[in-house]
Design brief:
Layout lengths: L2 H8 L32 E4 L5 H12 L4 E3 L13 E6 L4 E7 L2 E5 L1 H6 L5 E8 L2 E5 L2 E5 L4 E5 L4 E5 L2 E8 L8 H6 L3 E3 L2 H15 L9 H16 L2 H26 L8 H8 L3 H8 L5 H17 L8 H7 L5 H12 L3 H7 L20 H7 L3
Antiparallel strand pairs: 1-3, 2-5, 3-4, 4-11, 5-10, 6-9, 6-11, 7-8, 7-10, 9-12
Length: 380
């Protein structure tokens, strides 16, 4: 077998149609390749199904680990408090999608003494405005702007009807930049890096349901670096900018691979042309993932596993293997068994989807599966 042919087999590239070993019936083309199993499930909370007079008390209890909340003077319990709060645990960071009516909030000195939670949190409002005071200095925020605050200091404030995205990050994550963050406590982030961070946070939210466990540590690391870049000196900003460019390229490359899993032209050369980068740059970006060819084959094997595990997919194993770029049944079986620890036939008979090696939702622990439990466990 010549060198070019060996490379194609290793990458799992399909052979030309007239050289296929297995005849098959025409199958409808599926442009949307199956995605890997998600890394976690959200933790939802809502007052919407409660009686109006009970809604605010439920919201008070839910937010009690963090702040004391009060209704505006012109509102009563009978007016209701329709709010929802969906938490996502990314391992080293919590992301919260929140919607709530107008209210005031306070993290008092007494609350600090009774709470071990001292995380940093960042708020990105979608709608509404807020005013938060620390040591007589007020930070006024509005939609599209990031505010950063520490739960290790007392504060108070108020917010109008709003929708927002909130990040909670453990203080230890910034141990090497603690003085920089402390100097910027209760401030509104601004400038080009703040705008880049807004775009990045929005992109994470848009992909929450498709993230895998392998994605999470990198997401937390990049988020940390970008926050420091917003606040740090020029040298740190330059390093963060380069890291952001690498992350953006990796995201584009992953999307290209996922959209072309069943394409014969899925090669490093085709990726370089589509992404407009050199081979050396592409290999550099994929080095942490084991290389370009390894990543392509892993994604194809995952897609094949999803197809095998789908009771509605009636294709034979050899047909699924061929659809995802494997030139022979033997090559597919060996690669599949090495990746998952069992054969394609066993994967089909058990109908078990591959799961991440670890879970960040702690679903088996009743306390840890609460919002307060997630807050207390964050960073430990």
């Amino acid at each position: 077998m010549d060198t070019k042919r060996q490379d194609e087999v290793r990458a799992g590239q399909p052979r030309d149609r007239d050289r296929r070993r297995w005849p098959r019936e025409d199958q409808p083309h599926n442009e949307d390749a199956p995605s890997p199993a998600p890394a976690f499930e959200p933790l939802p909370f809502s007052t919407l199904e409660l009686a109006p007079e009970d809604q605010f008390a439920a919201w008070q209890a839910h937010m009690a680990p963090l702040v004391e909340v009060r209704l505006p003077d012109d509102k009563s319990l009978n007016d209701g408090f329709p709010a929802d709060h969906t938490a996502w645990n990314l391992g080293g960071m919590l992301m919260i999608q929140q919607r709530a009516p107008a209210h005031s909030f306070m993290r008092s000195a007494a609350k600090l003494r009774s709470s071990s939670i001292d995380h940093w949190y960042i708020v990105l409002p979608r709608t509404g405005r807020s005013w938060t005071e620390i040591d007589r200095r007020v930070a006024e925020n509005q939609p599209g702007k990031l505010e950063i605050r520490s739960l290790g200091y007392p504060f108070r404030g108020r917010v109008t009807d709003s929708e927002s995205l909130v990040l909670y990050l453990p203080r230890d994550l910034f141990s090497d930049a603690a003085s920089t963050l402390d100097a910027n406590n209760n401030s509104i982030l601004s400038g080009n890096f703040a705008n880049l961070l807004v775009d990045y946070v929005n992109s994470i939210e848009a992909r929450l349901r498709s993230l895998t466990a392998d994605d999470l540590p990198r997401i937390v690391h990049v988020t940390r670096s970008m926050i420091i870049a917003c606040l740090g000196p020029p040298a740190e900003q330059a390093a963060a900018a380069e890291q952001l460019r690498s992350v953006a390229l990796m995201e584009r490359a992953r999307r290209y691979v996922q959209n072309n899993l069943d394409a014969a032209h899925l090669t490093p050369d085709s990726m370089c042309r589509a992404l407009g980068v050199s081979r050396s740059r592409l290999y550099q970006v994929f080095e942490p993932s084991g290389g370009v060819l390894h990543y392509i084959q892993s994604r194809r094997l995952m897609a094949a596993h999803v197809a095998l595990s789908d009771p509605a997919d009636r294709r034979r194993i050899v047909e699924i293997a061929e659809a995802f770029g494997f030139s022979s049944a033997a090559n597919f079986s060996r690669a599949f068994s090495k990746e998952f620890g069992y054969s394609p036939r066993e994967g089909r008979s058990t109908v078990v989807l591959p799961r991440p090696a670890h879970s960040v939702s702690h679903a088996g622990d009743k306390e840890a599966s609460s919002f307060e439990g997630w807050l207390k466990a964050l960073g430990n």
